[in-house]
Specification:
Blueprint (H helix, E strand, L loop, with lengths): L10 H24 L3 E9 L7 E10 L5 E8 L2 E12 L2 E7 L2 E3 L4 E4 L5 E7 L8 E8 L3 E10 L17 E3 L1
Parallel strand pairs: 1-10
Antiparallel strand pairs: 1-2, 2-7, 2-8, 3-6, 3-9, 4-5, 4-8, 9-10, 10-11
Length: 174
């Protein structure tokens, strides 16, 4: 049993405990916000020809969350700028246009693939070589930033194989 005599208030100790608790809460908050409902799969960068100032990124973004999300931007370790592009139907014609966001439905996916939507990394600082890993930061409306490493290839993994072979999930960082 504690009596008023057996309990001493230690201001230095209490301040240390306070700092520890604030640090713990802040670090827990950053861990919680780092977790994302978005998973990046089958990501690859198409190898570019010498002299090119841009490369194209393809991937599938799967939203495991209960609410729609949207990809609203991409930054990269090798490019000064990026843009998302998609084919939009304009009457009987399909035209390629820059888009400000790509929606990913709840419990659904958005695919960036040859002949479809893609991300263009522009104003390259260097032309990435086959096999090189390139860091991307994908910016989502709800999920925040998701970092991902993408490999430069001349074709997608499993291009000439059946579905089960060559399945590439890349390296996830949530």
């Amino acid at each position: 049993m504690f009596t008023s005599r057996s309990f001493r208030f230690e201001p230095k100790l209490s301040f240390s405990v306070f700092v520890f608790l604030v640090g713990a809460v802040l670090s827990f908050g950053s861990v919680a916000s780092a977790h994302s409902n978005i998973h990046v799969e089958n990501a690859w960068i198409r190898a570019a020809t010498e002299g090119s100032d841009s490369v194209v990124v393809y991937m599938t973004l799967t939203n495991h969350g209960a609410k729609e999300d949207a990809l609203i931007g991409v930054t990269s370790s090798i490019a000064k700028a990026s843009e998302m592009r998609s084919y939009i139907q304009d009457g009987p014609l399909w035209t390629q246009q820059s888009v400000s966001e790509v929606k990913i439905p709840a419990k659904g996916a958005a695919t960036f693939a040859p002949g479809s939507s893609y991300v263009r990394l522009k104003d390259l600082q260097h032309l990435p070589k086959l096999g090189e890993q390139v860091s991307l930061t994908l910016k989502f409306q709800r999920s925040g930033n998701v970092k991902h490493k993408v490999t430069v290839r001349d074709q997608p993994m499993g291009h000439s194989h059946s579905h089960g072979e060559g399945h590439d999930h890349g390296s996830h960082s949530h």
